[in-house]
Amino acid sequence: MEIKAPDGSVYKCSSRIGDTIEKVSPALHIGAYKFYQLTQIAGYPEDVARNMSIETVREYANKPCPDFLKKLFNKKKKKEQEALLKEQSITSENLISWFLEGGRSKGLFSEYSCELPDKELEGRKPLLIDATDPDNIKTVGTTNLSNAALKHLVENQHKLIAQFVDFDDGRWFCFYRTFKGMSGREMGNQGEHMHFISNAYGLDRNKVVEGFKKGECPKNGYHVHFRANN
To answer: How much is the pLDDT for 228?
Structure first.
C-alpha cells in the first residue's frame, strides 16, 4: 500500500494488517483509518491526530465525485453500469469520494482483504516494510530477512482488497483489486486496473465475500483502468 505523510511524502509499504470492515459509515471508516495512520505509523499524539483526521474527511467530502461514479448508484442493469465505466479511469481519491457519496444516501462501507503468504518466508515477515528507498529499507517489527528479500516481498505481494457500498434495498456495488493488477502485472494487456461487480451481476454477496477472504476473485469482474491521483 502507499501511505501519504503530512509533509506530502509518499511511502510505499507492505503490511500484514488486514482487518475486515463490515457495513460501517464511510465517513467514520475514513476518519478512523486516517487516525490509525497518524498515531500508529506517523507517531502523532491522539488529540492532534483526531483533529487532522476530521479535517481529512472534510476535505474529501468537499471534493466532487466524478459524475459517472455518481450515476453508477442509480443504474440497476449490468450493461448500464459497465457502459458508465467503459474507457473511464479511477483514482484512489475518486473511490473515497464515491464511498462518501454512497454514505450520503445511507450506503454503508465494507472492506475484505486476503494476503496469501509466501510459504518460504512465512513467519519471518515484519509488521510493516517501507521500501520507498530500495537502498534504505525500513521495517517495523522483528525480521531476519535481507534487504533483497524485503524488497521482493513488497514487489510481489499476493494481496486482494475488495471494497463494497451496500444499500438497505439489497443493492451493492464493489470495486476490488489485486496488487499485481494495480501495478499492471496481471496476465493480459490490461495495464494498471481494478475490477467492478455488483448485485446486477447475479452474484450472491455472501459467496463473493467468502471467496475474497480466500483470495479468490469472481471471473466476470469488469476491468476499470486505475491511474495515480493528480
So the answer is: 74
85 domain residue, yes or no: yes
Arithmetic mean of pLDDT over the chain: 83
- Kindly state whether residue 216 falls inside one of the protein's structural domains: yes
**DSSP letter, residue 13:** E
- Return the residue matching grid coordinates 473511464: 88
Q: Order the strands of the 222-226 sheet from edge to edge.
A: 21-24, 108-115, 159-166, 172-178, 193-198, 222-226, 89-90
Q: Strand, helix or coil at 198?
A: strand
Chain-centre distance for alpha carbon 165: 13
Please list, residue by residue across 86-122, b when 16 or more beta carbons sit within 10 angstroms of its beta carbon and e when fewer do: eeeebebbbbbbbbbbbbeeebbbbbbbbbeeeeeee
Q: Identify the bridge partners of residue 140 per DSSP, sorted by sequence position.
A: 128
Give this prediction's pTM: 0.76
In a domain, 128, yes or no: no
Cell readout for 23 is 457495513
| Residue ranges making up the domain that contains 176 | 2-116+158-226
Over residues 164-201, the pLDDT tens digits come to 999 999 999 999 988 665 554 554 455 578 899 999 99
State residue 152's pLDDT score. 67
Q: What is the pLDDT of residue 14?
A: 40
Is residue 197 in some structural domain? Answer: yes
Closest CA to 215 of 183, 186, 178, 187: 178
List the end-to-end C-alpha distance of the chain, in Å, as a whole number.
18
